[in-house]
Structures are given as C-alpha cells and as structure tokens.
Design brief:
Blueprint: E1 4-13, E2 16-26, E3 31-35, H1 42-50, E4 57-62, E5 65-66, E6 77-81, H2 92-102, H3 107-120, H4 136-148, E7 154-158, H5 166-183, E8 186-191, H6 194-200, E9 203-208, E10 211-216, H7 218-223, H8 228-233, E11 238-248, E12 251-256, E13 259-263, E14 274-279, E15 285-288, E16 299-310, E17 315-320, E18 326-331, E19 342-347, E20 352-356
Parallel strand pairs: 3-8, 3-9, 6-7, 7-8
Antiparallel strand pairs: 1-2, 1-4, 4-5, 9-10, 11-12, 11-14, 12-13, 14-20, 15-19, 16-17, 16-19, 17-18
Helix pairs in contact: 2-3, 2-4, 3-4
The chain binds adenosine-5'-triphosphate (ATP).
Residues 13, 18, 36, 38-44, 192 line the site of adenosine-5'-triphosphate.
Length: 359
C-alpha cells in the first residue's frame, strides 16, 4: 500500500490553469474525497495522478517513489469511472480477468483472483453474465472488482455513482466505503456531491478554480469552513458582516448590522477586525416573537418571515432581519409559520464561527 503525495502540482491548458500549485498527501489506507464545483480541476488532478495527463509543474509521489513521468500502465492504479467503462461484448468474468491477462498471469491464478474478487463484491454467481444483463449498481460493482483484482497500490474513483438513482447512490456510498476499508487500499474519490464526500471520506479536500481551499475530516470542514465559498459549498450558511467589539475569555462579541452577537471563538482576532459571523440554518431556532421570551446565553435576532418552502421533514424559512438581509432557518413542519409572522431567531455562541472578512 502506498501513501500518495502531490507536491506543487500544476496543470495548464494553454493560458488556462486547471490545477494550480496543489499540495496534498493521502495517507496509507485513507480515502480522500476531492470535492468541488464542476470545472474546478478535480478530474485533471486525478488524470495527473494516474499518468493520463502530465503536469506542467510539480510532482506525484507514491510512497518515496516519484512517478510524475511514469506512463499509466506502470503505476499500478485501479480506476473506476462514472460510465463503468465495461467491455459490453465480454462477460463479467472476462471483464475482470482482462487486466490479469495483460499482466500475463496464469489461467489458474486468474481464476482464483477473479473468483475471490467476485465474492468480495457480492457477485459470485454473475461471472457468466454480460454487462447489459446487470443493473447499474451491479455494473459499478463489476467495475470496482475489475479495478481491485490487479491488487493496485492506489484506487482512483471519478464520480462513480453519478449515473445511479438517488436511493442506489446512497446504498453504494456505504458499500464503497466498507469495501475500501476492508481491502485497506489508499483511495482518491472525485465528486461534486458534498453528501457523498461527507459519508465516504476520511478527509475532504475542497477545490475551487484549481486551488485547494481546505482539507480536513468531513465534520471539521463542515463545522469550521475556512472561507465563505467552502461554507456555502458544503451545506448552507448565513453570514453577518461585522467587526470584533470585545474579546471575552471564551470568544468575542461582534457588532453586526443586526446588533451585538456573541461567538464562542475569537481565532486570535483583535478588537476592530472585520469578520463574517457565520451560522448554519439548522443551528438557529425559530420562535414566534414574544416580548417575554427568555433565552439566557443565546443570541437573539428579531425578524419577519419573507419566504418559506415546505420540504416534508422540515420547513425552510427566509427571515428578513433588517435592511433586506435574509437569514435562512429551518423550522418544524408541525407548526408552520405564515409569511409576515414576526419571529425571534436564537442560536448559541458555540454554534457560530468567524471567518476573517478579507477572504
Ligand atoms: P467536472 O466535475 O465537471 O468533471 P472537474 O472539476 O473535474 O469538473 P476538470 O475536468 O478537471 O474539472 O476541468 C478543469 C478545467 O480544465 C475546466 O475548465 C475544463 O474545461 C478544463 N480542461 C480540462 N481538460 C482540458 C483539455 N484537455 N483542454 C482544455 N481545457 C481542459
């Protein structure tokens, strides 16, 4: 098994920089999700790792071995794509055996390894079937088996679930995660689906415009996004612009356009510094406005419901909190509040965080 390292990886197409000085390391047996919007350079990064694209600058290391200029077939990589890329005229068995034949394995060795991997992906009885006789999920499991049968040092997956329906996609997330952990293989998983990245990955690397914006475990990136772009891309976020008014023992007070708000962190910021106080919709509680409301220790902001959307398990509200500023909040579907209702929004200092405003 190998650790993967990208050092200053840069790839240009003409004057356009698709991957811009990317530095990251994927640990032995780790699954790293490369997450970002369409066109941010995820696939190009994967192609540089696999050798189908040569970087203009920087290096790719597998363990201590520099493989930057090595052709793909000498990198011992297993790859899985969105469109499965199975050979339609070959049986499942033959599809999986293909890579082993290229490696000139003996017939007995091929049989043993194909049977073993078919069992691993739960398709033991399907060897004689053709891809067209399988469901999308089964075809993707064949593609995984074909990638794994060669005992690769690294598994690269490029949006492997994008062609599946929502329910199957959810099932397959858990399936791929447990398969990757059981095999113990180092993996890079490209997706633009944040839920997929959160479920599957040990760590998530978020990319924008060819650059790495943040890398960390899913919960950390979700709870403490480094930039407004990351906060918006992974989940939903409300921003209140303001400046630090007072540093407390445990956090700070920020003067915003809707009043003084307390935050449980201060990130080494000083008084007067401009910040974006950030809070997720699900961290905010919504109550009908009452002059007698008592919520000690909570930030309270008054507002009026301007828009709502019933989503079944929750109701999304857009609440105007002053001067056209809308805050997004999630409320209970049991007691739905009408447009124009005056409300108090409350959230605890520990459920908000600060992003320096220059980002
Ligand atoms: P998606 O999620 O849509 O696949 P991505 O994040 O994987 O997007 P890439 O496919 O890596 O993005 O592409 C990054 C940028 O580089 C895009 O703007 C794309 O148009 C450009 N690009 C990719 N390959 C080439 C190429 N061979 N020639 C010119 N431009 C390219």
């Amino acid at each position: 098994m190998a650790e993967l390292r990208l050092v200053g990886l840069t790839k240009r197409f003409g004057s356009f920089t698709a991957v811009d000085d990317l530095n990251l390391c994927v640990g032995d047996g780790e699954l790293l999700a490369l997450l970002g919007p369409s066109g941010c350079g995820k696939t190009t990064t994967l192609r540089c790792i696999s050798g189908f694209e040569l970087p203009d600058e920087g290096d790719v290391f597998f363990g201590d071995k520099q493989v930057t200029l090595l052709p793909p077939e000498q990198r011992n990589i297993g790859m899985v794509f969105q469109n499965y890329a199975l050979f339609p005229h070959m049986t499942v068995y033959e599809n999986i055996a293909f890579g082993l034949r290229l490696r000139r394995c003996t017939k007995a060795e091929i049989h043993r390894r194909v049977c073993e991997v078919l069992e691993r992906v739960g398709l033991s009885g399907a060897g004689e079937r053709y891809p067209r006789q399988l469901s999308g999920g089964q075809q993707q499991r064949v593609a995984l088996a074909r990638a794994l049968v060669i005992s690769p040092s690294l598994l690269l997956l490029d949006e492997p679930l994008a062609n599946l329906d929502a329910k199957l996609r959810e099932e397959m997330r858990f399936y791929i995660r447990s398969l990757q952990k059981n095999v113990g293989i180092t993996a890079v998983y490209v997706t633009h689906d944040q839920a997929e990245a959160m479920v599957l990955a040990d760590r998530v690397a978020v990319m924008f415009a060819g650059k790495l914006a943040q890398i960390g475990p899913p919960a950390e990136v979700y709870r403490h996004p480094a930039t407004p772009e990351v906060a918006q891309f992974i989940g939903l976020a409300n921003f209140l612009t303001g400046s630090v008014q007072e540093i407390l023992e445990s956090g700070c007070k920020v003067m915003t356009s809707v009043g003084l708000v307390e935050c449980a962190e201060s990130r080494g910021l000083g008084v007067g510094e401009k910040v974006l106080l950030t809070v997720r919709p699900e961290a905010i509680s919504l109550h009908r406005h009452s002059a007698r409301v008592a919520l000690p220790g909570q930030n309270i902001i008054r507002g009026v419901i301007k828009e709502s959307a019933f989503l079944g398990n929750t109701v999304d509200y857009w609440v105007e909190v002053g001067d056209g500023l809308l805050v997004r909040v999630q409320g209970s579907p049991i007691d739905i509040l009408g447009l124009g209702t005056e409300v108090d929004l409350s959230f605890s200092p520990s459920s908000s965080w600060l992003i320096p405003a220059e980002h």
